[in-house]
Design brief:
By secondary structure, the protein is of the alpha+beta class. The chain contains six helices and nine strands.
Length: 227
């Protein structure tokens, strides 16, 4: 069905005269603008097309929320006016529910990002009190409490050089966790390995050797990486 046929069908389905439609359109047109009945006749016959403001007003006058609902061609059975009203009721109900309504105002948080990088290589300072405050959105895991920028490629391919990793503060971690830690004054981002041979820091990049942690080493965990 062509767009001009849909205009006529929508009007007749509501038992509206052309005069009634153009009267309704005045409510939605810019101030002091109007449409003549003969103009609507021309649209329905396909001889002319409405301008943008006229198309919007026409759609609203015929009970459509979106202009595309009136003018876009679609295949298959079409809803009548009663069905369109019921569809609008369902739409309003869905928009009231946070489960179905898109959040147009994403949650913004502010998290500290430490200025000194953690090593994903040979070891750099992590335990630095200086940090910048960064606004983050929902792409950062909700469990994250702080961020640290990596230096080096030992945690590739999962984490790249210069990438900010997000962590939650913790002084303990389970075997296999990706951690931010300090070993003998140097900060690291590594995978924690605990087995019968002891404790070691493992790189995800196989080009790097494990870093064993001995009894004499000063070692503490700062956080567990969550994203």
């Amino acid at each position: 069905m062509s767009w001009n046929d849909r205009i006529k069908q929508a009007r007749e389905a509501q038992k509206l005269t052309r005069e009634q439609v153009v009267t309704r359109m005045r409510e939605f047109l810019p101030h002091e603008k109007s449409v003549a009945t003969r103009t609507l006749v021309s649209w329905e016959s396909g001889d002319t097309e409405p301008r943008v403001t006229q198309a919007i007003a026409l759609a609203h006058a015929l009970g459509y929320r979106e202009v595309s609902d009136l003018f876009n061609e679609s295949e298959g059975p079409q809803l009548n006016h009663l069905g369109m009203n019921r569809l609008e009721e369902y739409r309003d109900l869905l928009l009231r529910s946070p489960q179905f309504c898109e959040d147009i105002h994403p949650t913004i948080r502010v998290l500290p990002v430490y200025l000194q990088p953690a090593s994903a290589g040979t070891g750099q300072w992590l335990d630095d009190d200086l940090a910048e405050q960064m606004e983050v959105d929902d792409s950062v895991p909700s469990r994250a409490e702080f961020g640290v920028r990596l230096a080096g490629n030992s945690m590739e391919p999962r984490f790249a050089d210069g990438q900010i990793v997000w962590a939650r503060a913790s002084e303990t971690a389970e075997n296999g966790s990706i951690i931010l830690c300090v070993l003998n004054g140097q900060g690291y981002c590594k995978k924690l390995k605990c087995d019968e041979h002891g404790v070691a820091l493992i790189s995800l990049n196989p080009a790097y050797q494990p870093i064993p942690i001995g009894a004499e080493d000063e070692f503490h965990i700062a956080g567990i990486v969550v994203g």
